[in-house]
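FAQ
Q: What does a multi-component entry look like?
A: The components come first, one per line:
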Amino acid sequence: MAWFRNLSKFSAINVSHQTQTRNRSAHPFLSSSFDFASRRFISSVNHPTEEKPSVEESSKNRIQYPGLGPTKPHEKPRVVVLGSGWAGCRLMKGLDPKIYDIVCVSPRNHMVFTPLLASTCVGTLEFRSVAEPITSIQPAISREPGSFFFLANCIGIHADKHMVHCEAVTDGYKHLDTWRYTVSYDKLVIALGAQPTTFGIQGVKEHAIFLREVHHAQQIRRKLLHNLMMSDLPGVTEEEKQRLLHCVVVGGGPTGVEFSGELSDFIMRDVRQRYAHVKDYIHVTLIEANEILSTFDDRLRRYATKQLTKSGVRLVRGIVKDVQAEKVILSDDTEVPYGLLVWSTGVGPSPLIQSLNLPKSHGGRIGVDDWLRVPVVQDVFSIGDCSGFVESTGKPTLPALAQVAERQGKYLANLLNRIGKAGGGHANSAKDIELGEPFVYQHLGSMASVGSYKALVDLRQSKEEKGISMAGFVSWFIWRSAYLTRVVSWRNRFYVAINWATTLVFGRDISKI
Amino acid sequence: MAWFRNLSKFSAINVSHQTQTRNRSAHPFLSSSFDFASRRFISSVNHPTEEKPSVEESSKNRIQYPGLGPTKPHEKPRVVVLGSGWAGCRLMKGLDPKIYDIVCVSPRNHMVFTPLLASTCVGTLEFRSVAEPITSIQPAISREPGSFFFLANCIGIHADKHMVHCEAVTDGYKHLDTWRYTVSYDKLVIALGAQPTTFGIQGVKEHAIFLREVHHAQQIRRKLLHNLMMSDLPGVTEEEKQRLLHCVVVGGGPTGVEFSGELSDFIMRDVRQRYAHVKDYIHVTLIEANEILSTFDDRLRRYATKQLTKSGVRLVRGIVKDVQAEKVILSDDTEVPYGLLVWSTGVGPSPLIQSLNLPKSHGGRIGVDDWLRVPVVQDVFSIGDCSGFVESTGKPTLPALAQVAERQGKYLANLLNRIGKAGGGHANSAKDIELGEPFVYQHLGSMASVGSYKALVDLRQSKEEKGISMAGFVSWFIWRSAYLTRVVSWRNRFYVAINWATTLVFGRDISKI
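Then the predicted structure of the entire assembly, as tokens:
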């Protein structure tokens, strides 16, 4: 603080130097379980590691920090959660901070309420309303001295050493060096989710936008509004206007259908009024190789098809074989020019998940047993889209749905709390503890909105079974109410309700910020 | 639409082909006053222009479009407004769309409610709440066939030809070629605002963030939250933590003071709770070469100094001589390390304003007469931060304040409506029209919040005159109420009130999206 003492202040009032009087020993970084680096840079080359983590490392410019060491027997055991999606967040919410220290490693500090993400692209909801900070979900993470949120990517797991390798997300700020460190765990929960599948089609990653994160929704919104304004510039030809304002959605699952529905609502209500010059040029096309909403009842599917078509969405059955900067090429060589391309054809395992040397389930997911434990290794669990039952359980791989992830997170939080209470919280100490009931998934049903205040609700447990399935305004009301009650915090529940009310009264906001 | 006819639809329901049946002749781009380019690209080289516009042009890769030609005598005259700040937006709001077609040329499609921008950086208000779409301010722009909003920068003015040169903002999208076009005007209003001054100090543009646009506030917020998370990573030294969490504000005017106040509120209330690990490391320093809030009463200034210091803001009198990536160097060679640097030392004319071959006022602004007309040329007006009275008026240059810009916009809208009604709307036809009262500025007073529910209100017309000046909670209440009533739309007024209420109840949102 030498620089500060040198400064001449013009305020006569004394500033209390909190940093100089605070109790340093209380700081977690100085506690015994923390392998602390006293210099800013430990060395300019990597520390030698005895074993290589599963993902390739060692660029000479990178600096490795020691990180969080193993917990001592008298300390709280540490649960390390990789990921901050539905599964990881529901788990953290349920973990008892009196039993465990919780460390979350994720490249984003919030959970995204994915079922409502499509609504944010067109301004029905605000981006902030669908994002929930992790420290609101589990306040102990910011309060407990041994609990942390690390903005970082996991780059490897050493299951035999009970240790994960992390790399900080520096977000392009030049003043932060990319650094790596390790975090030791007593229990590890892999909840890293999945990534969009491109089926190896050229150009998808370069030209299409996915719809999985808030920044995807922001990008879609910016591009949509930008194209609306560009199409109104002098000198733009008819053909170019058609292209700029052609929104193509690939994939007819719930996300693709809901986004198409929201987009057509936006066009019908807001574009016609606010972009009167170009309103007749904007169109939405939904391309699907098979049938839309294939998991839903036939009757509901027909209803959705009718509703979408009525509100101007063109439904096209086709297989995309190539994606170029301004057009999509179908397998029959049809060229589909577009201004905005949204890709939502389902998800698959990420390269990290593929690279991990752990048992796998069908489809390359991390294999788990009936209690969501990863077999062979100790103290490792996996939940959500990145995990699936190993073949020996005889159970099918569960669909990549928020409700599966959430149910697994809740189950595992209870299981870990029980283990911790029984004294099995620390590494390699849970062998003789009774695990109780295995995880059983009961499907509660599916919902999807199709725009124009209409939705589908299918409450059957599977496609073959009997049960309630309905479509229309009442379903839409159920859809909204159900999601509103699922929104995690009261703050966001309040904001989602307010956003919906404002959209109804004032229309959608169109400022491109 | 050949690509579409080739597609095999799987929906049995017929799609109504609106684009093919719509009345093409009604489209504004095909009207007589529009010089329409039927091919997508007119040519691969620039069209020769008889005279060069004031800003250098002609890169061979750029394509020039003809644009909007002069209006015909039987058509509505066209007012072209350059800029979408307080001045331009207030003008457009007041212009009568029955008299004029309105064309706005601006690189952003919304107005920013600048006095509340500082509050958005820390999440007290949402970004969307302080942005107002231009088509909400003047709906005729999207509805009238001859009115337009062009997302473009003005790159030159041909006053003798009644024409402006524009360049589309392509926003980095590769599929859009940067193109240029011209727009003819009957009346031109230059309301391009000003840009932040750096006093030629090295490194300001590279390392500091200004606080003038929504994207600046977004950048500040992202960096602040990012630094909070980075400082909690394992292996970060004490010194590095101090630096990362040191927020330095340069400039003690209302913006700098309000931002410092908001930041200290955020630290006192939200950081302590949500970032308990690093709360003692975060500090705010406000650097000002002279006195803070120099336009305010001495008593109010002392009050502000006391309040800011009490809430932990360090007030430093110093002159910045150099800005580096992680530290600021003062004129006495003191080094001030920072993690976030906000620069708000006032504004000056932009390069475009400087380059225009028009009469100038004191400080390089565009000179105007008592009726806000630019002398020498016909039908050109200028309002807001980019304009000042020419010397012959004997009037001083008005301060760069929202209230000056707004008052000028309102005055000029009335003046132009009067001219239009009297038949002087078209180019070169207003010579004999009575202009009425000249523009007179009456200062209503100044306000600034200083954090902790305290504000200053100075209702004196100038620093020397007598009048009401007060500070404290009542002032803060007046400050909030006054701004709330000034927010343009009911939608945003509602959102600002809701945001304030939510912040009070739930605290500020900290998700980094």
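Q: Is there any commentary attached?
A: Sometimes. For this entry: The domain at 209-348+444-506 of chain A is CATH 3.50.50.100 (FAD/NAD(P)-binding domain).
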